[in-house]
Amino acid sequence: MKKRQLGTSDLHVSELGFGCMSLGTDETKARRIMDEVLELGINYLDTADLYNQGLNEQFVGKALKGRRQDIILATKVGNRFEQGKEGWWWDPSKAYIKEAVKDSLRRLQTDYIDLYQLHGGTIDDPIDETIEAFEELKQEGVIRYYGISSIRPNVIKEYLKRSNIVSIMMQYSILDRRPEEWFPLIQEHGVSVVVRGPVARGLLSRRPLPEGEGYLNYRYDELKSLRESLPTDRPLHELALQYCLAHDVVATVAAGASSIDQVKANVQAVEATPLTAEERQHIQKLAKAAVYEQHRE
């Protein structure tokens, strides 16, 4: 599978990554999916400490035994929780980040994390303190690089200006083109985008459109019309994944999969012929070019 450089780092990630949140809580099933993911050449795995209160990280750690060196391992921090209790709260403090990373390393059964990401963030956070935590973890060799997972323009702009992030994870798809407004600025800073949500909760896949369901600023009838108007010479999910990869600021599309068949279908879609400029322009004429209305300044 083709690889792309993640920002200015020396990490080269597969164009298709794997969003580990989709693994669920059945360890046997999760292990089978993970084995298939790795067998098919996907080298970017994206998890978070919050997913099932660390259980997801544990599954990933077990699956990586004996092949850690072949994997670009990414996890996230900032959503603080107490084991066995419902809910979580936001904590981007330096003290918490430096403590939480120890728990992630233990669950992942590794002594370093390739990409450590802030799992959210607001403009009111102690951003310099948060950055300091990541920089110290880099110096200590605990993490190789860091990034953020955010769709807030004001947060993104501050980290681009003040930190050494190499990536920004953003929800992006044909149905959510809001990130495109910020791609030039992100690219100007030598930072890559890691895509989540490329098939928009399955609305850009083979499954039937749920009756009456909308998505962001799309009504049901608009979704139905768009799906019917998109080119039919490619599977819908192939169009969706290839559309995300058509912009070179995107390093990897971290798609989830809850079955081996879905993993195989995603690999096939990413290894298909890239969209032509004409195909991409046609999709853009059909899909709304929305922008983020909130958290801009």
TrEMBL record:
<protein>
    <submittedName>
        <fullName>Oxidoreductase</fullName>
    </submittedName>
</protein>
<dbReference type="GO" id="GO:0016491">
    <property type="term" value="F:oxidoreductase activity"/>
</dbReference>
<dbReference type="InterPro" id="IPR023210">
    <property type="entry name" value="NADP_OxRdtase_dom"/>
</dbReference>
<dbReference type="InterPro" id="IPR020471">
    <property type="entry name" value="AKR"/>
</dbReference>
<dbReference type="InterPro" id="IPR053135">
    <property type="entry name" value="AKR2_Oxidoreductase"/>
</dbReference>
<dbReference type="InterPro" id="IPR036812">
    <property type="entry name" value="NAD(P)_OxRdtase_dom_sf"/>
</dbReference>
<feature type="domain" description="NADP-dependent oxidoreductase">
    <location>
        <begin position="15"/>
        <end position="287"/>
    </location>
</feature>
<dbReference type="Pfam" id="PF00248">
    <property type="entry name" value="Aldo_ket_red"/>
</dbReference>
